[in-house]
Amino acid sequence: AAKAAGKNQYLRFQPEMMTALVRRTDMEAGLRLAVDNDEITVNYQPIVSPVRGEVAQFEALARWDRNGERVPPSQFIPTAERSGLISAIGMHMLQESFTQLRAWLAGSPERSLAVNVSGVQLRERDFADDVLRLAESCGMNPAQLVLEVTESVFFDHDDHVIEQLGRLRHAGVSVALDDFGTGYSSLGRLQDLPVDAVKIDRSFVSMIRTGAEKLPILSSMINMAHSLGLTVTAEGVETAAQAAYLTDLQCDLLQGYLFSFPEPDTGLEIALLRSADAVDALEGMRLRR
Ligand code: C2E
Ligand code: MG
Ligand code: MG
Ligand code: MG
After folding, report:
1. Of all protein residues, whose CA lies closest to atom 20 belonging to ligand 1?
2. Which of 44, 92, 116 to mutate to test the pocket of ligand 1 (most atoms within 8 A of CB)?
3. Which tens digits make up the pLDDT trace of 76-98?
4. ipTM for the complex shown
5. Angle CA(97)–CA(132)–CA(233) in degrees, nearest 5?
6. Separation of 179 CA from ligand 4 center, angstroms?
7. DSSP percent split of the chain into helix, strand, coil, nearest 5
8. pTM of the shown model
9. I need a surface site. Which of 26, 39, 46, 60 has the fewest CB within 10 A?
10. Beta strands in the chain (DSSP E)
């Protein structure tokens, strides 16, 4: 009977497993071609300083249009990590964004570029040196570069990862903890992590509704980060009420659809204008209160 059940189970599972495997292999093959053919492009989303009233940073986000259809990063980044293609994609993202934002970055030393980095890249032998060499060859000042990592890169206490981040920070690069608050470790662990900034995950920002009561969690996160000397960015800011609330809590930087969607570099002027309008509107709203 056990054998029969096992056999049934096997028959029931096989088609699904095959479909998943085929889909995965297909995605990987497509991604390999995309890398070879330079089909991975970069979009930029402005990150504004409500105090300075201007765009302080752009985050580079990978885009893949496969046969005219956009594949979301949540689908292709995990495939890229599993297959090792993330290394080539990651370097491509750095090279493209260094080049495309060069003029904007040259406008002020206060401006910076944020690029997402996978733990797979940090485990490479020469990641830090490769990044610094690329920056130099592109005329990019390392002090204007922010590398965004998630908490998962610290899970296995990998000495090599810590060393790579140390080399980068020593050269002036900042490290930001992305999706802050969604990880498994406590707020208290923040002080042990080699980071310069945190990006509060948008799930916390979305808790801010008009007329909502105080959100002690948010103010604790911001105050704790500030007491450790870290810069705080809020992700996923979609409403003026959220922006005003976060500004009152002294959040340093704001990012979200309120200011702009991610845009290709050709759309940067538009993104800048739209975020300037949103900052103005926000200022007006704060003054009226
Ligand atoms: P992330 O680094 O946390 O990036 C922020 C994500 O939130 C982006 O999604 C962005 O488009 C989206 N977003 C921005 N503002 C808002 C908003 O107001 N509301 C909402 N609902 N969403 C907003 P995207 O571009 O789909 O990227 C998803 C994730 O994929 C990124 O999350 C990052 O973890 C990963 N990713 C993207 N590009 C790269 C890359 O070049 N390398 C690596 N390793 N990961 C990347
Ligand atoms: Mg990010
Ligand atoms: Mg994030
Ligand atoms: Mg995220």
Report:
1. 236
2. 116
3. 999 999 999 999 999 999 999 99
4. 0.98
5. 55
6. 5
7. 55, 20, 25
8. 0.93
9. 26
10. 40-49, 54-66, 69-71, 112-116, 145-149, 174-180, 197-200, 231-234, 253-255
